[in-house]
Design a protein that fits this description.
The protein has 342 residues and is an alpha+beta fold. The protein has helices spanning 65-76, 93-96, 112-128, 131-135, 184-199, and strands at residues 2-6, 13-17, 28-29, 38-41, 57-61, 80-85, 100-102, 138-139, 141-148, 167-174, 179-181, 202-205, 208-214, 218-224, 229-231, 234-237, 261-265, 276-283, 293-297, 303-307. Helix 1 (65-76) links the parallel strand 5 (57-61) and strand 6. The longest helix is centred in the middle third of the chain and has 17 residues, at 112-128. The radius of gyration is 22 Å and the shape is elongated. It binds flavin-adenine dinucleotide. Flavin-adenine dinucleotide (FAD) is lined by residues 34-35, 61-67, 84-87, 91-94, 96-100, 207-208, 238-241, 243, 246, 248, 260, 262, 306, 321, 340, 342.
Length: 342
């Protein structure tokens, strides 16, 4: 059993082992320091905004970016929120993502309004939570480039200074008004820390095994791995892209994930890499197109290279979270290289 504590770094909460006697009880995780969640409500909690009602008890399952943000906003509205996380906050996709944000790339699709709202909300949160320093939030330009091996250099292309090689096409696909980025691990930890410190959210470590239903099939809490039952009037399932495999969700609804890989590099001279995100199409000298890549330089001195989604949904994805259950004090957010599933 472990607890979380603030590290000496103001930005990164490290994972610290605690002495054995504390293992006897479920330990509250004291962080002193795009999938929608599924919400199961009890019938009595459906009229929630009446100020005379006592605050709703909400159990949020999963401390990825979705669970952390859900906890933050519900607690801000006055709910009593407990987050249950089986491993560590932001240990899975939310700690490993590119952290790229776009205003209008979902336009004309079902997520358009959500994506637009989310983009503006990120700008607002960055002002509120010191985003640029706390989690490397910044607005940036985004370019689509085609690189072809052995092609003659094309004159007149507007390329960032740090890009060399035979680019045959370059076009702007995002401006500082429409694209931005953040460090997803730091963002998730920051918003969860703020929810704990400012709005009294409780984070506990445990694996949700079952949603308990009371009479009338309404949610009344969750059972966790050691048999303890956490009671709540509302249960939010935010257990990530592979949670359809879990018995908690299977049968309830269909969730599918896409596998994405990323490599995080640390250039020798990070300052030489400018604030431009790249969407790369790469062709061999023979003209064969390889998988597209996305390149996200971060102000933290890393460059994230993402390999764009497989074109079919993966249904065999294993959840590959970085469970530091060995109790070491690694901060995996800062690995120089990592390959992970989402
Ligand atoms: C390489 C990569 C690059 C990406 N790039 C981008 C990008 O640039 N922009 C973008 O918007 N999105 C990007 N994504 C997608 C984005 O990361 C995900 O959509 C997002 O992080 C999902 O968040 P989540 O909270 O739903 O899931 P997760 O981050 O997977 O969190 C789920 C949490 O639930 C916990 N959990 C699971 N089961 C249980 C249980 N039974 N009990 C208790 N806890 C449980 C897990 O331990 C985990 O902490 C990328 C993803 C990957 C992998």
């Amino acid at each position: 059993m472990t607890q979380y504590s603030r590290s000496t770094s103001p930005l990164i909460c490290r994972y610290t082992p605690i002495p054995v006697p504390f293992l006897l009880r479920r330990k509250q995780i004291s962080i002193n320091h795009k999938i929608h969640p599924i919400i199961m409500q009890s019938s009595s909690s459906s009229s929630s905004s009446n100020p005379t009602e006592s605050p709703k008890k909400v159990i949020v399952c999963g401390a990825g970016v979705i669970g952390a943000c859900t906890a933050y906003f519900l607690a801000q509205k006055g709910a009593h929120v407990t987050v249950v996380e089986k491993s560590a906050p932001a240990c899975a996709a939310s700690g490993k993502a590119g952290g790229f944000l776009a205003l209008d790339w979902c336009d004309n699709g079902p997520l358009s309004a959500l994506a637009r709202r989310s983009f503006y909300l990120h700008g607002h949160l960055a002002d509120l939570l010191s985003g640029p320093t706390a989690y490397a939030f910044r607005r940036l330009e985004t370019l689509a480039l085609t690189i072809q091996e052995a092609a003659p250099p094309k004159q007149g292309l507007k390329l960032p200074e740090w890009v060399d090689g035979p680019a045959t096409r370059a076009s702007s696909i995002g401006t500082t008004q429409t694209t931005a980025q953040l460090h997803p691990y730091l963002f998730t930890r920051k918003i969860l820390d703020t929810a704990v410190e400012k709005y009294g959210v409780t984070v506990v470590k445990g694996e949700v095994k079952e949603v308990r239903l009371s009479e009338g099939n309404v949610a009344s809490g969750v059972a966790v791995d050691d048999g303890e039952v956490l009671l709540g009037e509302c249960v939010v399932l935010a257990m990530g892209p592979w949670s359809a495999k879990s018995t908690v969700i299977s049968g309830l609804c269909r969730i599918s994930g896409l596998k994405v890989h990323s490599i995080v590099l640390r250039p020798q001279v990070p300052e030489a890499i400018g604030p431009q995100a790249l969407s790369l199409r790469y062709k061999t000298a023979e003209g064969v197109s390889l998988d597209d890549h996305e390149v996200y330089p971060r102000p933290t001195g890393q460059v994230v290279i993402g390999f764009v989604y497989e074109d079919k949904e993966s249904d065999d994805g294993d959840e590959e979270s970085d469970d530091d259950s060995d109790g070491d004090d690694d901060d995996d957010s800062d690995d120089d290289e990592q390959v992970c599933g989402g």
